[in-house]
Amino acid sequence: MALSQRLDLRHSQSLVMTPQLQQAIKLLQLSNIELAEYISGELQKNPLLERDDGDGPAAQEAGSDNLSAYDEARVDEERPSGLEDGFSDEVSIDAFDNAEATTLPDAGDDPNDNDYENNWGSAGIEETDGPTPGLGDDAGLNLGSYTGSGGRSDFDDSDFGLDQSAQAGKTLREHLHEQIGIDFVDPVHRMIGANLIEMIDDTGYFLVEMTVAAEALGCEVAAIETVFERMQKLDPPGVFARTLSECLTLQLKDRNRFDPAIEALVNNLDRLARRDIAGLKKLCGVDDEDIAEMIGEIKSLDPKPGLAFESIVDEQIVPDVLMRAGHAGDWILELNPDSLPRVLVNNSYLTSISKRSMNKTDREYLSECQQSANWLVRSLHQRATTILKVAGEIIRQQDEFFRFGVQYLKPLVLRDIAEVINMHESTVSRVTNNKYIATPRGLLELKYFFTSAIASAAGGEAHSAESVRFRIKALIDEEPADKVLSDDRLVEILRGQGVDIARRTVAKYRESMRIPSSVHRRREKAIAY
Fold first, then answer.
1. Which H/E stretch holds residue 331?
2. Which of 10, 90, 406, 450 has fewest C-beta within 10 Å?
């Protein structure tokens, strides 16, 4: 058979993710902190974007002309003609001015699993006939009337002074360098000490071999050891330790509490970890009262003394959704305005620029900036709507949890939410990732409400794994010292309460909560009482 070349024309369908769709998906899974960083980057790249501080020039434009990007499609036919290259009229587009709603969005309004062009070409969110059940009449994206602080752009530099900035704390190495400058007179010893300081880790431990340190400094090992012994006496006590036992020993010596009995305890920390109290009493030669006092002394020590000098900044979690009880016994849900960035497309600036004479490259650049800015505003509004929709359905399905407590938490998976709101499971997963809700039960991550199911012993409704953990912890907390509950006994009690659970599952949940076994708990309570 002869081989030959030919040209065929074939039709095929394939799913292609446009850059705009990729951006929308990316925004959906970002936390509020990551979103603020992303918006800051877009503001630097796109000259048509600007923050809305609520009182700037863009926000004070003509009231009827301040229009949301969500409703931009409705004014396409009303725009005045004569603007070059399709530039719009003098309008300031706000990402959330038209995001207010009196009810949660309907399931048919989902913008994530539909075609973006068709979705945003609609007139807007379809209004429901009445209030959303269980969420109150005034639930919704009440964003237009808020002026928050977190995630906002209305940061006035004039209100911030140098005296308001936090003073940088002293680091561990700086603290040690100050001490060797005073305690070490010999410049050679001072030089060795300064180099040893650079060899410790952030916790204060020295994990370098003496021979390696001597080779790096080009001196004898004996000189290194001489300086090292003096370095171990510096503040904080326990610094320059090579093992945990040595760290605790240095701290006990500093307190003048290092005697032969506690030395034996420090040298057998593995037995203490196993809670072998009887073996420790025999090794230390003490009674129950003394061993309890010695263990309390060990617990008062700092196993990582260097961390006290490391400034660890705890990032405050800002909730994405706010929830509160309504007057009629329902729940009111709204997005947190402090975590929503307000971004404007400054069409006034765009119009003034477009009237100038520009070459083709400049026109293409401005057109690209306009499209990118409009799409960003729409994507932000879409993100807000989707978060509210998913959170609303979670609250509906976990209503008993909010009213009666964690023991009423129902088993829930992503598919349960996705099927009700007509979204894909991956969309629900992105929405609940790193998103938090402020509830009457505290600040909780949306992922918290998704737990596996444990079958009911009586064949009734399944139990949530989180609620079973709560029951196990409650039973252990209430157990008397003379009747410590074993895992088998916990299984019997839980099955009596209608929870069909295996012993290994009880042990797994107990260990996940860092609760020791019944043997160890019995020893601890025997010492305590």
1. strand 331-335
2. 10
Sign of dihedral through CA atoms 10, 11, 12, 16? positive
The pTM for the full model equals 0.54
Share of the chain residues as helix, strand and coil, in percent rounded to the nearest 5: 50, 10, 40
Report the DSSP pairing between strands 92-94 and 66-68.
Answer: parallel
H-run or E-run covering 438: strand 436-439
Q: Delineate the domains of the chain, giving CATH numbers in brackets.
A: 19-150+319-382 (no CATH), 172-309 (1.10.10.1330), 451-528 (1.10.10)
Report whether 467 contacts 499 (CB < 8 A): no
Q: Which two tokens stand for residue 206?
A: 């020295």
The residue ranges of the chain whose pLDDT is under 70 are: 1-2, 53-169, 310-315, 457-461, 526-529
- pLDDT per residue as tens digits for the range 123-147: 333 333 444 334 444 443 333 333 3
Q: What is the DSSP annotation of 502-523? A: -HHHHHHHHHHTTPPPHHHHHH
User: What does the pLDDT look like over 205-250, one tens digit per residue?
Assistant: 988 888 888 888 888 888 888 888 888 888 888 888 889 999 999 9
H/E segment holding residue 191:
helix 187-197
